[in-house]
Each structure stands twice: as C-alpha cells, then as structure tokens.
C-alpha cells in the first residue's frame, strides 16, 4: 500500500500523511492538478469525488462533492494559496454546502501537499494545519485518518494506468477492513458495453451465470434508483447444487459509471449487503470495481468462503467471451 504513515500532533494542531509511489514527481503532480484524475482516487472507497470546479491558480477555487453508496453527499472547497510546480501547493480546505460555499460551523484547515523525488519514484507528504486541537480532534473523530488512507491507497492504479494495474490478474478480492471487501476485474472492452451487460436483462442472462452448468432463471431488473430487483439461478442437466436467488433495492445510478444496491439472499434471514459497482475506462479497457459492505467480519468471511470470487471470475470471463466483439 502506498501510504506509509499517518500521524496527528495535538500540540501543533496538525495531521500528516506520507505515501510513496513508483512514479516520478512530475507524474504524481499531474494527477493532483487534473480534476478528472483526482476524481479517480480523492474520495475513499464508496465515496467517489466529483469536481464541479477546478481553477488551479493562486486565489482561485476548486469544489467537489463526494457521494456515498446510499446517495449521501459531502462537499468540499479548496482555495489555492500557494503553487510551486511541481514541488508543492497549498490550499485552504473547507467543508462545503450544496452551493459550494464553506460551512462556517465546520472546521477548516490549511493543507500543504509536497512532492519529493525518491530513488524509487516520488514521495507525497500531506500536512493539514488546524486552528485548534479541538478542530483537529473533531475531524479525526469523523474518520478522516481512515478515509484519507483508503483514498490515497487507490492512487497506484491511476499512476500505473489500468492495463498495467490489472491486466492478466483476473478477479481480485481485497479485504479492506472488517466490513468492506473490494473486488476488481479488468474487461477488454468499452465501458458503455460493460454497463449494458450489468443493466440490460437480455445481456445479463448471457453471462451472469457463475460456474458452467447454471442458468439465470429470473432477471427482474431496471436500473433506476428506488426500484426493486430480483435474480435467481438454477442448475441445468447434470450440474449440482440447489437453486438460489437475490433481491434488493437499487440506491444510486450514474449511467455508465456507478450502480449501488442492497443485496439479500431470497428466502433467508441472512443480513443484506451493500454493493457499490463503479466502472472506469482507459485505453479500450474497463475496470470493474465492486465494493461490498458486510454487517460484520463473520458475515464477510462466511460469504468469501463460498468461493464467490471464483464464481465471479467465471462470469466475467464469459462476459468477455460472449459479449465483447472480437
């Protein structure tokens, strides 16, 4: 993981994050000064950021909104104070309302981002200066240490490019914490087609099947926030296993980019999970990222032990084989 240290100093009113990357300073600088690249990692998993304004000049501003998996929104605003390309820049960092204006009742801070060359690439040092120990404590209590760490640990795939990051690795499962698992799979094909494959029942029934020998017997799905859905599968011929299915509610839809939903195993009292699917396209390939939130570590481990990752890999391989043009 790129993040090597996160520390707070209540006496100096500071929080410092350090991370190292196998990329030159100029490349690291470029992702922090391009809003389209910033959007790919600035929010922690499940809370992607959208920059609605970004004027990279002293005295100018940037505004962004992070959207949670159930549609929650949290805004931020930067005022650029100093720029020393490609070594550092600093901003006045504030929480923002729905209009992009600073929220006066919330703490603001001065954030300094410094970029240093290393033998292996570059080092990032992000230091936030608060106005008081109470302000620092308030922000830390909101989870900023954990959120910042998870966000910065997403930066490798932006710096490397999607092919270098994920090509040939198949379906990868990463345990982020007791409740969260991230699953990634690179698809050789455009995002528009991958999105259709996840949202159009006539396509979903061709690939979303798990191991060979099963068929999708029910696919009641409409990609609209607030809609209910239901899937079901059953073995065919000599295939072994008992029919099963899932149901839930669709929470967030951003066409061709994001789909979040609850997921419950039909006919059981098992707790629901929260599934957050995002799509990124680069150089003709699409990275599928699914963040799954479980109610606890025990449920997480139970689900992973079923061979879920192997079943997903079989389906994704079928998606490429059946739906992606040769």
Automatic annotation (TrEMBL):
<feature type="domain" description="Activator of Hsp90 ATPase homologue 1/2-like C-terminal">
    <location>
        <begin position="190"/>
        <end position="323"/>
    </location>
</feature>
<comment type="similarity">
    <text>Belongs to the AHA1 family.</text>
</comment>
<dbReference type="InterPro" id="IPR023393">
    <property type="entry name" value="START-like_dom_sf"/>
</dbReference>
<protein>
    <submittedName>
        <fullName>ATPase</fullName>
    </submittedName>
</protein>
<dbReference type="InterPro" id="IPR013538">
    <property type="entry name" value="ASHA1/2-like_C"/>
</dbReference>
<dbReference type="Pfam" id="PF08327">
    <property type="entry name" value="AHSA1"/>
</dbReference>
<feature type="domain" description="Activator of Hsp90 ATPase homologue 1/2-like C-terminal">
    <location>
        <begin position="23"/>
        <end position="160"/>
    </location>
</feature>
């Amino acid at each position: 993981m790129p993040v090597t240290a996160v520390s707070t100093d209540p006496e100096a009113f500071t929080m410092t994050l350090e991370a190292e990357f196998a990329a030159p300073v100029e490349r690291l600088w470029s992702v922090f000064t391009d809003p389209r690249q910033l959007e790919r990692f600035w929010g922690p998993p499940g809370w992607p950021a959208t920059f609605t304004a970004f004027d990279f000049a002293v005295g100018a501003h940037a505004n962004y909104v992070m959207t949670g998996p159930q549609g929650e929104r949290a805004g931020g605003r930067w005022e650029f104070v100093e720029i020393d390309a490609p070594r550092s820049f600093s901003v006045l960092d504030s929480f923002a309302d729905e209009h992009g204006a600073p929220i006066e009742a919330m703490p603001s801070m001065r954030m300094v981002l410094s970029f240093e060359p290393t033998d292996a690439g570059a080092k990032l040092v992000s230091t936030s200066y608060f106005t008081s120990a109470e302000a620092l404590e308030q922000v830390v209590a909101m989870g900023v240490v954990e959120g910042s760490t998870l966000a910065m640990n997403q930066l490798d795939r932006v710096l490397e490019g999607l092919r270098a990051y994920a090509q040939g690795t198949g379906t990868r499962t990463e345990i982020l914490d007791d409740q969260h698992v991230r699953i990634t799979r690179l698809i050789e094909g455009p995002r528009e087609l991958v999105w259709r494959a996840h949202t159009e029942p006539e396509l979903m029934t061709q690939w979303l099947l798990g191991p060979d020998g099963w068929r999708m017997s029910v696919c009641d799905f409409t990609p609209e926030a607030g809609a209910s859905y239901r899937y079901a599968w059953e073995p065919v011929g000599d295939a072994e296993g008992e029919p099963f299915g899932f149901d839930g509610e669709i929470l967030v839809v951003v066409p061709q980019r994001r789909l979040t939903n609850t997921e419950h195993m039909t006919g059981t009292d098992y707790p629901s999970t929260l599934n957050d699917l995002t799509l990124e396209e680069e150089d003709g390939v699409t990275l599928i990222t699914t963040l799954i939130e479980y109610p606890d570590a025990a449920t997480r481990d139970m689900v992973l032990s079923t061979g879920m990752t192997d079943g997903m890999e079989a389906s994704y391989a079928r998606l490429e084989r059946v739906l992606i043009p040769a």
